[in-house]
């Protein structure tokens, strides 16, 4: 009797694992869902720029006593598009963070359209810009208070308060569009081809089997982009770095505003003299709904790594 029970458990667990493997990306959340997270690195206004990663702290679930749709520990990916220090006379420190996708432990990446509601003690605007509140009232009081008047007059040329988002700053975001399984990108479906240890480093990449389509949001659109070179590629949008793609990686989702924009990419090569960047080409993919990073001219392949 005990052996029969053991075999039943083995068969059921095997069937459950096969079902889970057949449909790896099944998360779905409605618009308006609140997600709380913490940054994985220290973000200082005026210094931080480019890709950023946040960690989801509590489980995101729709109903009590139900499995979490987005488990804790999942990653929220974004880009710091603008970062300014406080001015010397006017202007407060601010940073604009555009959230692009959620990456879960089952290798599923879900594009999102979300905005920041709260960021610790800082103020978040309607456009998702985090702004330092400043100390205008306190400074005015210290100017009018005789013992500190001279000190405040001396420090007038100094900058205002800085804006720092560290690993202990809680950030609350809100989904503006539904998160659906149909828009997810499963990295398990990507078929990269990496060079063997004894083979030459410069070989092509196998074609990716994962298919995605542009996903519209409220203020921007998400496009699929792939790195089809065996090099680490740095991606730029309008001259600003937005992401670093590993070799033979993708497709992943690229956020793009509805206005005109320009894309560029460079290969990050490690040579004996140090790191070197070489320009790559960005071409439309076979479906013409996104882009591929390629080395058609063979510029990167012609660099001597020895």
> What distance lies between the first and last C-alpha atoms, to the nearest angstrom?
67 Å
Let me know the number of strands. Answer: 20
Please give the share of residues in helix. 10-25%
How much β-strand is present in the residues?
Answer: 35-45%
> Any idea what the shape is?
globular
- Unreliable stretches (pLDDT < 50, length at least 5) are 16-22, 191-202
User: Can you write the helix and strand succession as a string?
Assistant: HEEEEEEEEEHHEEEEEEEEEEE
Indicate the structural class.
mainly beta
Average pLDDT metric: 77
Main sheet specs: 10 strands, antiparallel
- Gyration radius over CA: 24 Å
Count every helix, treating DSSP H or I runs of 4 or more residues as helices: 3
Features:
single chain, 306 residues, mainly beta, eight-stranded mixed sheet, 3 helices, 20 strands, 13% helix
What is shown here, in short?
With 306 residues, this protein is mainly beta. The protein is built from three helices and 20 strands. It has helices spanning 2-22, 136-144, 146-154, and strands spanning 34-39, 43-44, 50-56, 75-84, 94-103, 108-111, 114-119, 123-124, 129-131, 164-165, 171-175, 185-186, 215-216, 220-227, 232-237, 240-245, 249-257, 263-271, 274-284, 291-294.
Topology:
Layout: H1 2-22, E1 34-39, E2 43-44, E3 50-56, E4 75-84, E5 94-103, E6 108-111, E7 114-119, E8 123-124, E9 129-131, H2 136-144, H3 146-154, E10 164-165, E11 171-175, E12 185-186, E13 215-216, E14 220-227, E15 232-237, E16 240-245, E17 249-257, E18 263-271, E19 274-284, E20 291-294
Parallel strand pairs: 14-20
Antiparallel strand pairs: 1-3, 1-11, 2-10, 3-4, 4-5, 5-6, 5-9, 6-12, 7-11, 8-9, 13-14, 14-17, 15-16, 15-18, 18-19, 19-20
Helix pairs in contact: 2-3
């Amino acid at each position: 009797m005990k052996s029969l029970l053991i075999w039943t458990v083995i068969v059921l667990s095997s069937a459950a694992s096969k079902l889970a493997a057949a449909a790896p990306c099944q998360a779905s959340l409605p618009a308006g869902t609140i997600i709380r997270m913490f940054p994985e690195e220290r973000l200082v206004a005026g210094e931080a720029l480019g890709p950023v990663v946040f960690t989801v702290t509590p489980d995101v679930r729709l109903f009590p006593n139900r499995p979490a749709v987005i488990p804790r520990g999942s990653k929220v990916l974004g880009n710091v598009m603008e970062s300014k220090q406080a001015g010397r006379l006017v202007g407060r420190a601010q940073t604009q963070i555009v959230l692009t996708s959620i990456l879960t432990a089952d290798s599923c990446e879900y594009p999102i359209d979300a905005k920041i509601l709260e960021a610790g003690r800082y103020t978040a605007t309607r456009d998702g810009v985090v702004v330092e509140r400043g100390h205008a009232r306190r400074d005015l009081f210290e100017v009018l208070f005789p013992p500190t008047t001279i000190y405040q007059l001396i420090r007038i040329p100094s900058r205002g308060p800085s804006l720092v988002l560290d690993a202990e700053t809680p950030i609350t975001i809100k989904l503006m569009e539904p998160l659906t399984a149909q828009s997810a990108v499963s990295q398990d479906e990507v078929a990269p081809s990496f060079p063997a240890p004894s083979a030459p480093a410069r070989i092509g990449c196998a074609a990716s089997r994962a298919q995605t389509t542009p996903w519209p949001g409220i203020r921007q659109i998400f496009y699929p982009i792939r790195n089809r070179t065996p090099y680490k590629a740095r991606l730029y949008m309008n001259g600003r770095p937005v992401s670093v793609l590993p070799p033979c990686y993708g497709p992943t989702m690229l956020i793009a505003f509805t206005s005109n924009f320009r894309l560029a990419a460079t290969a990050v090569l490690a040579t004996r003299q140090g790191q070197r960047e070489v320009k790559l080409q960005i071409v439309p993919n076979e479906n013409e709904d996104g882009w591929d990073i390629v080395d058609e001219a063979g510029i990167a392949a012609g660099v001597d790594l020895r």
